[in-house]
Each structure stands twice: as structure tokens, then as C-alpha cells.
């Protein structure tokens, strides 16, 4: 906590129950940097990203994840086309089977027409989510929240000036007190 008014607590031990403001995220990791030079935060971020992006383990995991994501997208597209052709078959072909010539007497049970709209919509929504994930999270690392330098750094000129002014003020008061009571100190020392 750097007292800048931005909440930055991470529950890495899962002490708190999950609710609207607390979310447990297992595929994230949190990096905190404490530095006297906030200007170097960009270099720290670039170094961390370079390390992760050049790590063979992370590269292989990302390739596998992207391949599986593409396979799921292809499978979803196949399912969508099959469901669409099944819907066309049910609607057009089976209605043709029900036509009979005049003079025939046929007893049929009323066939229930099955609608595939919800299934098609769910598959399409799933495909859109997968496409979005492929577009947005295609890199090994996605930085969700970059390092934010504190609003008032600890080593700002104002902070340094305050610290030294307070120190010299206290030293000055002590010197004034010692010099003003110097004669009294000598008398007390001579008595004992």
C-alpha cells in the first residue's frame, strides 16, 4: 500500500470469500515493485515481459493454448453449419414427406416442430467469445494493469525537503535550549 488512494491489495492466500468485489483469479500473477526511482518502472516492466516472452515453457504453453482455441473455433463452426443444415432438413424435407394425394386417408400424430434458434444462438455466442479471446489474448502475457507510479513519491523533492527541514528544526531547538541553559548545566554539574 503506497497511500495513493488506489486499492492494490491482492488476496494471494484466498482468505476472503468470492463476491462482487473479490474475485479469485488463478491464471494471474501480481508483481509489486518498491523503488526510489519511479522513472525506472518502464524498464522493470520491459524486463519482466522480455523474460516471460523468451521463456520456452511459456512459449510452448501459449502455442498449445492458441492451437486448442483454434480447434474449438473450427469445431464450433462445424457444429453451427451442421445444426443449420439439420434445421433446414427438418423444416423443408420433412414437410414434403407429409404431403399426400387427394383421396388418401392417413392418420398421423401431430409432429412437434423443434426450433434450433437457441442452440444456434448459444453456439454463435460461444464462437464469438472464442474469437474475442483469440484476438485479445493471443500473446503470452497480457498486462491488465501496468505499474502505476505513486501520486506522491516517497523521494520527491518536497518529501526530502520536509524531512531535512524537520531534522534541522529539531537540532536548532536543541542547540538553542542547550545554549540558553548552559550556565544552569554548569552549576548543576559543579554541585554534584
Automatic annotation (TrEMBL):
Keywords: Coiled coil, Membrane, Transmembrane, Transmembrane helix
Taxonomic lineage: unclassified sequences, metagenomes, ecological metagenomes
Coiled coil: 59-86
Organism in which the protein naturally occurs: marine sediment metagenome
Protein name: Uncharacterized protein
Positions of transmembrane segments: 164-185
Amino acid at each position: 500500500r503506497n497511500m495513493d488512494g488506489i486499492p492494490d491489495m491482492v488476496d494471494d492466500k484466498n482468505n476472503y470469500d468470492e463476491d462482487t468485489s473479490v474475485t479469485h483469479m488463478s491464471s494471474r500473477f501480481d508483481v509489486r515493485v518498491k523503488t526510489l526511482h519511479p522513472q525506472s518502472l518502464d524498464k522493470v516492466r520491459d524486463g519482466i515481459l522480455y523474460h516471460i516472452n523468451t521463456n520456452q515453457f511459456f512459449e510452448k504453453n501459449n502455442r498449445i493454448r492458441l492451437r486448442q482455441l483454434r480447434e474449438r473455433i473450427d469445431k464450433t463452426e462445424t457444429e453451427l453449419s451442421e445444426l443449420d443444415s439439420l434445421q433446414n432438413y427438418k423444416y423443408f424435407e420433412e414437410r414434403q414427406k407429409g404431403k399426400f394425394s387427394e383421396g388418401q386417408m392417413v392418420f398421423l400424430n401431430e409432429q412437434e416442430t423443434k426450433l434450433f434458434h437457441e442452440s444456434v444462438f448459444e453456439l454463435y455466442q460461444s464462437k464469438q467469445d472464442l474469437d474475442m479471446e483469440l484476438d485479445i489474448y493471443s500473446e503470452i502475457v497480457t498486462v491488465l494493469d501496468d505499474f502505476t507510479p505513486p501520486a506522491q513519491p516517497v523521494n520527491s523533492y518536497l518529501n526530502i525537503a520536509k524531512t531535512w527541514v524537520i531534522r534541522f528544526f529539531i537540532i536548532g531547538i536543541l542547540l538553542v535550549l542547550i545554549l540558553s541553559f548552559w550556565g544552569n548545566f554548569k552549576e548543576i554539574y559543579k554541585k554534584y
